[in-house]
Structures are given as structure tokens and as C-alpha cells.
Amino acid sequence: MTNNLAYAKQLDATYEIPSMRDEFCVTEGRIYFDGNSLGLMSKRAEQTLLDLKDSWQNYGIDGWTQGENAWYFLAEKIGAQMTEIVGAKKEELIVTGSTTVNLHQLVATFYKPEGKRTKILADALNFPSDIYALKAQLALKGYDETHLVQVSSKDGQTLDENDIIAAMTEDIALIVLPGVLYRSGQILDMARLTKAAHERGIVIGFDLCHSVGSVPHALREWGVDFAFWCTYKHLNGGPGSSGALFVHEKHFGMKPGLAGWFGSDKEKQFTMSHTFEPAFEAGAFQIGTPNVFSMAPLLGALELFNQMGIEKVRQRSLALSDYMLQCVEEMLDGYGFTICNPMDHQRRGGHIYLEHEDAARICKALKERHVIPDFRAPKGVRLAAVAMYNTFEEVYQCFAILREIMETKAYEKFSNEREIVA
Length: 422
Fold this sequence. Notes:
Aspartate Aminotransferase, domain 2; 7-stranded mixed sheet; PyrdxlP-dep_Trfase; alpha/beta; 422 residues; 2 domains; pyridoxal phosphate; 4-stranded antiparallel sheet
């Protein structure tokens, strides 16, 4: 049986890949299982943020070119730290903007409607912000929402790659899909989808917000045209930390759809010419001046991440979520929970997803007992045991507390409505 504390402690003592919990600012007495929404702060991330604050204090304007982490090339330097995480060359990566801003940039660049090919293919389960951006880009090109094709889900939780491929028809000009679905945590087969798109002459890109830092990628090997992601979830970059994007080397020299001075060739940026001369590599897709303090924690966070390595992160993450699912089956049987994430390792991302008719009030009851889950309307509970700082003991404690909440019906004192930030 796995539903006892001794077993969980034994796993922590003997599992082959230890956590890096001591490197993080962990609040004792609190179980934090919301790292797929906002990762915890590491001590190194805190230090690099302080270091960049000091560079402003010590150098003033000269901080752009002086100091260990000069700001002028900071986006490239941090991008280079992500090469192993996403499987790309450093020249194909840049840290810039935010998820949605980067999506706008990439769609403005790669969406080129011509002849029959005027439509964008997405899915019906995607994060709303992506859909807002795609509709806005269609409108800018003079097309209405009928030109956005959204592949539906058979079960309301997952997508079938066969359905996506079947939707890659002759009228599709661009495809934008998630790497991992934000609710169910399903991993899409990005390699297969990319191959199928290219066989049909379609450009394809991926939103990796819920996959970067939780599963390995091989973007360059797969031939993905572009990708974009946030850095505050599994990468632990802090609230509002700068986003990142990937553009495959085969597209180098392509003029960005949205021009801005930080996308300039670095050698010519300060000539102040009114003729935009973009950088040749991924740096061309920057728009405005980098948000240095929103990038600074990533220097330390990614150093720590690369010390553990993405393969070990993935292995430990799966072990933790396997144990979570065992606890659900053994400790919550009969309490009305439904497991809605894929069970297979090849299909499951970095969190588990449960549904319950009283999900919102159950999440509130968990928080009252210092367990931090994530509620997703209308009835979803996401729980992420993060490889770098969560433990098997915390998994057991979480489900012991959840079982007690269900047994005593302690959740009934709360309203079954979401809080402002779910």
C-alpha cells in the first residue's frame, strides 16, 4: 500500500534522483502544488535579481555594456541557457516580451494568406489568450473568425492527433497548437504534427507554456518552425518574467512582422537610421527594450535547472505524478473525483488533473489547510508536484488532507465559485 507516511518517506530517502529543495525558498508547513502556474523562487534567482539591481546602482547607463551580465546582450545570454531544455541552437532562441506579445509577433511574421490558404488551424482546448491573439491577427489581415479552424475534442479533455492532421487541409496557411494542454496536461506529439504539416506545405508553431521545463523537447530536430513560451511556470523565473521564443534556423533572415528597435542588427542599432535592419538570427523578433529586472531571475533559475538536467527533471516529475495518481486511486475512491489527465508517460505532462462537482470549494478547503492547488473552471483541480522542490512526503500529506476534507465535508462551508485568480 502507498497510502502511508512511512512509504512516502522511504521514497524520499531512496529515490535515485534527489530534489533540489534546499535551493528554493520553501515555506515550511505549506505544500505548494501550483508550480505549473507559478514556480517557487530559488535562492539563485533571488541573487541574480539582486545582482542586476546592483548593476543599475553601480553602473547607471553603463550597465548596458559593463558588468558580468551586461544588459545589452542579456536576452541572448539567457536564451543560450535554454538550449538543452528545448533542443535548439542558441542562435534560435531569444528571451523577450511575453507569451501573447510573442505570439502576435510570430503570427504577424509567419501568417501569409495567399490564394486558397487563408485559414489558421488551432484547437478548441487552447488557452484563451492564444485564441484572442489569433482572431486579432486574422482581423488585421481582413478575415473574420470563420478563418480560424479549431479542432474539437472527443472527450472534452484531450486531442487526437489524427483529427488535427485531418484538419490540415489545402486552405490552412498556419498552425498554432499547445505542446501540453493546460487543463488535462496531455502532451501532443509535436514531431508527428510538424512532419504532417510540412508534408502539406503548412507552417507550424507551438505554445510551450506548459511543456517547457516539464518535458524534454527537440525543436530543432523536429523541424518546428517557431515556438513561444512563458518562463514563470516550470522554469521558475518569477511573476511576469520575460517570455521566450524559438525560430528555426531555416527562417533566419526573415523580416519580423512587428518591427522594433531591439530587433535590430546589434552593430547598427544605435545608428538611429529610419530604415530597419533586423538581426539575422532569433534576436530579430524582439520588439522593445528588454525588461531587465523581469529577466534577471532567469539567470539563476536556469543555472539551477540545467544543473539538474531536463531528463532527470522529467524522470523525477513522472515518479511524483505516478505516486499522486496512486494516492488518488487508493485514498479518494468513492469521493467523486475523476482523473482526466492521460495516464501514459508519453502523453502526460508535469501535472495531474482531477475533476469534481465541488472543485472550487475543495480548492478553498485545501488552501485553508496550507495546501496550494490550482482551480480551473468549471470543475477542475490541477496539482503539480514539481521535480526540483516537491517531495513524495508532500504528495502523501496532500492526499491525506484531501481525504479528511472529503470525509468531514469541510469543503461545504465554502462557496463553489472561483476566486479572482483561479
